[in-house]
Structure formats: C-alpha cells, structure tokens
C-alpha cells in the first residue's frame, strides 16, 4: 500500500465570456433535415425564410435580427427553437459573407444562453459543430501571418475575418465545455490548434477579443494534466509560455487595464494557462508566485468597483423603454431595431433613426452595461484562478492506491513518508507566501466580500449588475476562506483586537444578510453563508492560544447554533459552524455559552450524517478533554455529559458500519475514547 499523486480533472462551471457584440461567427456549408425530432417539419416563422433570400442586405438584416431576438428572453428563444431555428441557421452558415456569418454564429451562441446542454446537443446533431470546425480551418488558412498586413486595422480582408474568428472561437468554447468528444476533435485538428496558438501570442498584433477567445479555448484544452496539448506546447512553443508568463507577471504588451476591450482578461487567462502548463514541470509555488499572484492582485486592485457600480446606476436610468417586450410583441422591423448600425442595410438606416430613435439610447446603455459586466467576469476569473491555486498548492492531493504486493509494503511506506515530508515542506513554504501576500490580498477580497450588503457597504446596487455582484461576492468569500485557512498563525496574532472585531462583525453581517429572506438567491446565498462561517473558523483556529480573543455577541452565537440545528443545511456548513462554536466557548468565564453549545454538540450525535456525528464527537473531545477549565465540573459533569456519551455509543457504532474504513480508518476511535473516559479524572465524581 502506498500513496501517489493523482491529478483529477474537475469540470467547473465557468462564467461565459461576454461578447463585445450580440453576434456570433462562422461560415460553412450546412445540410440539415430540418425536422423537429419527431419526423415532422415544423411551421416556419416568416423571419427565418429570409435567411435564404437572394438579397445580401436582406440576409444581413435578418441574421442580425435573429441574433438579437435570441438574446432577449427565454420565451423568444423557445419560439425560435420550436420553429427549427437551429436547422435554418445551420444551413445559413454556408453564407460566403463574413459579416452575415458573424450574425449567424451570434444567433447560435445566444440560443444557448439557457438550457445550454440540450441546445448544444441539438446543434451537434444538426451538424453545427462539424461546420464550425471546417470554418475555423478556412479562417486559419486565410489568416496566415504572411497573408495579412502587419497593421490589421488597415487590412480590409483581415478585420471581418478576425471578427468572425472571435465569434467562432467563442462558440467553440461552449462545445469544448460541453463535451469531451468535442475536445478530442479539436485536439486532433492541427490547423485549429496552430491558429489558436498563433492567436494567443500577445505580441502578434492580434485583436484583443480574438486573443481572449483563443486563450479561453486553450485553457479548457489544457485543464487536464494528461492533455497532450501540454507536452506539445512545452516542446514546440516554449516561446508562447514565456510570452504569457511576461503578460501574467508584468502585464506586458499593455494587457493590464479594464478598458472597452477588457485587456485585463488576457492577463488573467494567461496566468491560468501558464499555471496549467507549468504545473507539470515547475513547482506549484513558483508558478503561484510568478504568475498567479501578480495577475490576480493586478486585476483586483485595478478594478474600480465604486465607479463600476455608480456607472451601472446611471445607465439604469436610461432604460425607459422595455426592449424585451418590444422584441417579443413588435413587428419584424422593430425586432431588428437592436441591430448595430454597421449591420443594417444602408437604405434602412434613415428609417431606423426616424422611427425608433428612442431605442438608440437604450442600445447604447445596453452596450455600456455589457462592458461593465465583462469587467465583473474578469474579476470572477481572477478569483477562481486564485481559489484553485490556493486549494491546489495548500492540499497534498494524495490518493490511496492498491499495490497488490504486500511484500513491498514496508519499502513503499518509507517512500511514501519521504514524499509526504517533501510535500509538508512545500506546504510550509506555501503558507509563508500566502502569509506574506495576505496584507495585500485580504483587503482586496474583503471589499468584494461585502458587495451588495447595504448594512456594511452603502454603495449603489444597480439591478442590471445584481447577478454580477452576487457572483463576485460568492467567489471572493470562497477565496477568503481558502486563504485564511492556509495562513500562518503569525498573521492572526499580528492583528489587534479592533481589527479582529471589525472583520468578525462584517463576516457575521454578510452571513445574516445572505441567510435572511432579503438575499433571495438560494444556493448562492447558502454558499456565501458557508464561506463566511469557514472564514470564522479560520480566525478561531488562528487565534487559539493567543492573547487576542474574538468578541462575539449572544445573537451571533444563536445564529451559529441555528445553522447547526437546521436539518436542511448541508453537512459541510453544519461542521464548520459547530467547530466555530466549540472554539468560541472553549475559554474561561463562558459557562452559560459553553452549556448551550455543549447541548447542541450532544444533540448533533443523533444527526443522520455520519460526518456531522464524528465532527461533533471531535468537538466535544476538544472542548471537554481538559478538566481544568472552569466549565468542566458544572457543565460536563453537572449536566451528565459522560452518561449521554456512553448512551450514544451504540448509535455511533451503527453509523460507523456504513462508513468506508479504508478511507476513514480512525472513525471508530472517538466513541471508544469517550466510553473509556478516565474515571480517575478529578472532575469526574
């Protein structure tokens, strides 16, 4: 029996990149049977028929209108889907005009805004993915470095193709996140891979949106330690890794600003790709220090949160027209009003301006809000990168494996112990780096954690950015939890009582805000509460034995108790809350609070979750193992805790039977320890 490192690829939900336009890309030859899955041909709405018009301007206007209709709301998307819009768009992908193809792909991307899995499955069945690959191959051939001008803005051929390439890559990203089979198909295409690699070079004068889309795709492809792309890039393109490292560490080539092109996203994605590529050949600590930390700190410190929220509140005032209802209920011509002027046919521009001039203001506001949302998405990526790096570098990632050769067990165990010692040394170094970076990271994360909680952050909360704010808070709290759990005790001890009390107070306020009915965001709010309690646990652990003690209120104690006693809460939240409680009351002169928490811990032994039972037993042992505390005699002895523990042994034994002892070999020790509690202890009569 020995231990070995096992790299596990975790499929994570990633916030989808926000397009600069509600459009999409790709040109191809399509064939589709046009059926709705039941063998019958659905009736087509008139606007879809215009996709096959002989008039180029008519096709352009129609493609733009469908792209925007697909992004309006679920009702509109369902109407389009019921009329075989995917089949019609698949046929239209053969359009030779790149500008029309951009709108066609944009429509396909917008259709997958909700219920992405089913929509992408239908697209794959109707040949969209295969057509997309063929178009990307043609785009790669057309955009070879020796066929375009050095200044892409002056090359009339390259500009529309790069727009098309951006949208194609973003649609491809959806397929890569959707299916392992799609990933294999892309990895097998050298033309597409070479184009993505070339487009990812920050010094190749590629438009920023194309660089961003390429890095998104490469990150997904390289998100597996066993990916052949990793070794290929190391062997064939070490210069790419060097360039991306320069961008990640220093923001080279100007990729360090939250502008309309969101160049900061390139820096964050570069850091993530370097992290994936270098982890196999360099120490994780080195990658974390040289790539992850500089990129994340730059992204979080450069993000103008107050300005973003203020701008969002201003833009909300400009939404005086219900664009959604207009798109659903209006005529076809009105449905096309949202189309950018560049995509409108020339002879309709004047009519557009005269008849629907008010919506121009709304369209402009929509575009501005999309930019703000894209900045939030960049922050989300930075926080996710930080959380993954912290979790990866601070955990050993060990997995037990069966050797099948008992004769070598002793040698294998010795080897395992040596590896574990090296890993412990690496963890110690990581803790030092985390502690050194904490003075910078903690304030940045704290400001994002408090986002949307009016009691402690009175900044404006524009409804148009509510989803972005919610996602930011959840990710920031998760990062704060992972960071504080890995900090050295010296960081906590360096804080004075006022600083600790202030942080404790806003953590409690956020938890109360998210657990109240005012939050109204279900799973996300519960995740925020759990992260808050996790940070509280880290503070309690870090301050154990120090002169600084956490000052808490009875209301906060009751709130933590309610988290433990509410049966619908996940076991992970209950476990964190019970450990916070046990540490808070394990101090002199807290007899009443200790009694209240002790009864809760005893009650948790009857929990249906084995994990909660075992953690509750651990907490009881931690709190009451030392008879010298002033609460031991009146609480543990006076309340008959020992008898209750003995009575619960059989209950615990039944729960132990359902636990895999190979994974939790110490699981049976706790009840035996309590049952054999020393009768000679001075506190026991």
From TrEMBL:
Polar residues: bias regions: 26-35
Region of interest (Disordered), ranges: 1-42
Signal peptide: none
One GO term of the biological process aspect: protein import into nucleus
Limits of the SYO1-like TPR repeats domain: 463-664
GO terms for MF: unfolded protein binding
Compositional bias annotation for Basic residues: 1-12
Assigned protein family: Belongs to the nuclear import and ribosome assembly adapter family.
Listed name of the protein: SYO1-like TPR repeats domain-containing protein
């Amino acid at each position: 029996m020995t231990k070995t490192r096992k790299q596990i690829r975790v499929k994570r939900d990633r916030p989808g990149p926000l397009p600069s336009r509600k459009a999409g890309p790709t040109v191809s030859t399509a064939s589709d049977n046009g059926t709705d899955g039941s063998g019958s041909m659905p009736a087509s709405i008139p606007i879809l028929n215009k996709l096959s018009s002989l008039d180029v301007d008519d096709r352009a206007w129609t493609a733009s209108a469908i792209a925007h209709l697909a992004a309006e709301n679920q009702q509109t998307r369902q109407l389009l889907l019921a009329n075989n819009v995917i089949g019609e768009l698949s046929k239209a992908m053969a359009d030779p005009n790149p500008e029309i193809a951009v709108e066609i792909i944009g429509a396909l991307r917008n259709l997958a805004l909700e219920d992405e899995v089913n929509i992408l499955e239908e697209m794959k069945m109707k040949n969209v993915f295969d057509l997309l690959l063929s178009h990307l191959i043609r785009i790669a051939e057309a955009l070879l470095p020796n066929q375009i001008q050095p200044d892409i803005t002056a090359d009339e051929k390259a500009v529309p193709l790069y727009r098309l390439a951006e949208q194609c890559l973003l649609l491809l990203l959806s397929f890569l996140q959707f299916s392992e089979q799609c990933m294999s198909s892309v990895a097998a295409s050298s033309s597409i891979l070479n184009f993505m690699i070339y487009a990812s070079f920050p010094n190749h004068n590629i438009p920023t949106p194309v660089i961003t889309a390429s890095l998104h795709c490469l990150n997904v492809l390289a998100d597996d330690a066993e990916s052949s792309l990793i070794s290929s890039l190391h062997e064939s393109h070490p210069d790419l890794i060097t360039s991306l490292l320069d961008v990640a560490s220093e923001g080279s080539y100007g990729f360090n600003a939250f502008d309309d092109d969101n160049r900061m996203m390139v820096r964050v994605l570069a850091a993530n790709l370097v992290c994936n590529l270098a982890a196999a050949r360099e120490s994780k600590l080195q990658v974390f220090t040289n790539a992850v930390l500089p990129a994340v700190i730059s992204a979080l410190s450069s993000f103008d949160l107050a300005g973003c929220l203020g701008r969002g509140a201003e833009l909300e005032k400009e939404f005086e027209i219900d664009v959604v209802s207009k798109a659903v209920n209006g005529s076809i011509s009105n449905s096309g009003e949202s189309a950018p002027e560049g995509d409108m046919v020339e002879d309709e521009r004047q009519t557009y301006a005269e008849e629907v001039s008010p919506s121009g203001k709304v369209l402009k506001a929509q575009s501005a809000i999309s930019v703000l949302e894209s900045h939030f998405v960049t922050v989300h990526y930075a926080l996710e990168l930080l959380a993954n790096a912290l979790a990866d570098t601070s955990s050993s990632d060990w997995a037990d494996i069966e050797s099948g050769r008992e004769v070598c067990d002793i040698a294998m165990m010795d080897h395992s112990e040596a590896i574990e010692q090296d890993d412990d040394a690496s963890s110690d170094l990581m803790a030092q780096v985390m502690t050194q970076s904490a003075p910078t990271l903690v304030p940045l994360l704290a400001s994002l954690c408090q986002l949307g909680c009016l009691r402690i952050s009175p900044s404006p909360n524009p409804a148009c950015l509510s989803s972005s704010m919610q996602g930011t808070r959840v990710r920031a709290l998760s990062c704060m939890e992972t960071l504080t759990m890995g900090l050295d005790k010296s960081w906590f001890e360096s804080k004075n009582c006022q600083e600790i009390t202030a942080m404790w107070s806003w953590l409690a306020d956020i938890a109360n805000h998210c657990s109240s009915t005012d939050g109204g965001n279900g799973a996300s709010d519960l995740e925020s509460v759990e992260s808050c309690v996790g940070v509280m646990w880290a503070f309690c652990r870090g301050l154990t034995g120090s002169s600084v003690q956490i000052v808490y209120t009875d209301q906060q104690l009751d709130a933590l108790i309610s988290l433990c006693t509410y049966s619908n809460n996940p076991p992970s939240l209950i476990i964190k809350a019970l450990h916070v409680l046990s540490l808070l009351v394990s101090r002199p002169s807290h007899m009443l609070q200790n009694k209240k928490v002790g009864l809760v811990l005893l009650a948790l032994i009857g929990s249906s979750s084995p994990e909660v039972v075992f953690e509750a037993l651990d907490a009881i042992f931690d709190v009451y193992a030392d008879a010298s505390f002033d609460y031991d005699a009146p609480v543990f002895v006076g309340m008959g805790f020992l008898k209750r523990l003995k009575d619960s042994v059989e209950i615990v034994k039944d729960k132990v039977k359902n636990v895999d002892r190979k994974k939790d070999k110490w699981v049976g020790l706790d009840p035996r320890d309590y049952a054999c509690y020393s009768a000679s202890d001075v506190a026991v009569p």
